[in-house]
Amino acid sequence: MTLSHFKKGDTVEVIAGKDKFKRGKILEVKSKEQLVIVEGINRVKRHMRPNPQLPTGGIVVREAPLHWSKVMLVCPHCNKPTRIGVRILSEGKVRVCKKCGEIIDET
User: Fold this and answer.
1) How many of the other CB atoms lie within 10 Å of CB of 6?
2) Which residues pair with 93 in a beta bridge?
3) 83-105, pLDDT tens digit by residue?
């Protein structure tokens, strides 16, 4: 299994595709497929037939997954998209911003 540098709740910036330079919060990470679902990014329309959750059916707009190579984590300290490094401390591994060197949080 591949190590993911992303966690649910992280803010990311899209670096490729139609939504380039847009930012959003990660709603879900699918590690095996290397996909992330970002709030407000890559929205698609789905035609739904009637079901118990949607009694009348209709068109539903929702976020589709993106490959995680198309997004970069935004550092909460320097507010810039950055690559992630890993530093080993006494309490375990932590994610580190490559631009400013600040600790992002524990992995």
Assistant:
1) 19
2) 88
3) 999 988 888 888 999 999 999 87
